[in-house]
Amino acid sequence: MDVPSALSGLRVALLGPIAWPTPPLGYGPWEQIAANLANGLSARGLDVTLFASGNSRTAARLCSVVPVGLNEDPALDADVYGALHIANCFRRRRAFDLIHNSFDWKPLTYALTTDAPPLVTTIHGFSSPQILAAYYAAAERSFYCSISDSDRDPGLDYLVTAYNGIDPKEFTFVERPGEYLVFLGRFHPEKGAHLAIEIAKRAGVRLLIAAIPQDATYFEECVAPHLDGDRVQYLGAVERAERDALLGGALALVHMTTRPERFGLTMVEAMACGTPVLGARMGSIPEIVVDGVTGFLCDDVPEAVTRVPRLAALDRRACRTRVTSRFTIEHMVDAYLDAYERALELGSPPPPDGAKRASRAHDFWDRPMAFTDIPPKPSTLVASVPSA
User: Fold this and answer.
1) Which CATH number fits domain 5-165+330-365: 3.30.360.10, 1.20.1250.20, 2.120.10.30, 3.40.50.2000?
2) Could you tell me where in the chain the CATH 3.40.50.2000 domains are found?
C-alpha cells in the first residue's frame, strides 16, 4: 500500500512502552510491536519520533527521559518515570501532526487537558473493567484502535482493528520439528502454564517452558512442583535467537489461556516458524488460529489432549502462510495509516456528532461528582478586626 499524499512526511510522535528496551532482548510484546511500527512507518516515509527507553534501537528518531527499561533497573520508580515519559511527549506536542499513544491509558489524561494534535490510541487490552472509565472519559479527545475484533468494548468507537505484525524473515521456518510442546510468555494464571503442564503430562509429551516470573505465588504453587528437569523443563527467559530455535523445534505452542486473549504475539511468532498452536477457543485466538489448519482450538484440557496426536499431521507451511498473508509489519502499518488518515480528516478533538465516543464521554463527565458540594469561596481572606 502506498502512503496517501496527505500522510507523506507526516510528523508522528509514537509514545511507546518503557518496561523494556524497544525492541526487547527477550520478553516484551508491547515493545516489540512499537519497534516494528516505528521502523515500518519510517520505511513508508513518515517522520517518526519514538518515545522509548534510552537504550532502544530504532530507524525513527529516539527521544527518551529514562535511560533503560524500567524492569532493567529496580532503582527507577515506574510511576515517576512513567509520568515523565508521557510529559516528555506532550510538552513537545506542537512539533507533531499526530500523536500515537501505545502506552496504555494514562496519556489520555494529558489529552483531556492540553491542546494536543489528533491523538490515536492503541488499546492493548483492558487489564481490569475499572480502567474503562479513562477510555470513556477521553472518548472525545482520542481515537481508538483495537488489536483484535474480540477485544473491542461495545461502548467505544474504533477507527480500525490493527493486528500486531511481525517480520517473518526474523523467524526460521522448520519443516520437521522435534517431539516437544512449548509454553512461552509469562507466569500468570491467565496465561495458563499450569494447563500446558497438565496437557503435556496427560498426552505423554515433553514440555519446555520459557517465561518470565510475573506472579511468584502462582509459579511456586502451580508450576514449580511439576518441574522435573526432564519431561517438564523450565528454561528461564530466553532471548530472540533462543526463542526462534525453541519455537521452530516444537511440535506445537500451547496457548490455553484462562481468560480471553487480547492478541497473543507468541502465536504469530510460532506460526511464522511453521509451528501450530494448541489454543483456547476464546478471545482473539480464533482470529489468529485456523482450527484444524494452523492448530487446534479447544474448550478444555481433555479436548486439547485428544488433539496432541493430530498435531504432526498439520501442514507447517500453512502456518507460515497464515502469518505472511495477515500478520506482517506491512499489514499492521497499512491499518495504522488508514487510522491516521481518518483521524486527520475528523480533526482534534473528534466532533461531538452523537457517536458513541461523545455519548460515553458525556456520560462520564456529566454524572454527579464528589466535589459538587464544595462550599463557596469566602468573600475575604482576612477576618475583620473588631473595633476597640
Assistant:
1) 3.40.50.2000
2) 5-165+330-365, 168-327
- Please report the beta strands in the chain, taking only residues with DSSP state E, as ranges in sequence order: 11-15, 47-51, 61-63, 98-101, 119-123, 143-146, 160-161, 180-186, 206-212, 232-234, 252-255, 277-280, 295-298
pLDDT values of the chain reduced to their tens digit, one per residue, 388 residues: 678 777 889 999 999 999 999 999 888 899 999 999 999 999 999 999 999 999 999 999 999 999 999 999 999 999 999 999 999 999 999 999 999 999 999 999 988 888 889 999 999 988 778 889 999 999 989 999 999 999 999 999 999 999 999 999 999 999 999 999 999 999 999 999 999 999 999 999 999 999 998 899 999 999 999 999 999 999 999 988 999 999 999 999 999 999 999 999 999 999 999 999 999 999 999 999 999 999 999 999 999 999 999 999 999 999 999 999 999 999 999 999 999 999 999 886 554 444 555 556 556 655 555 444 444 444 444 444 444 4
The pTM for the full model equals 0.88
* Residues facing 254 on adjacent strands: 278
Nearest partner of 145 among 317, 342, 304, 297, judged by Cα: 342
Three-state DSSP at 341 gives: helix
Q: Architecture of domain 168-327 in CATH? A: 3-Layer(aba) Sandwich (3.40)
CB atoms within 10 A of CB 149: 12
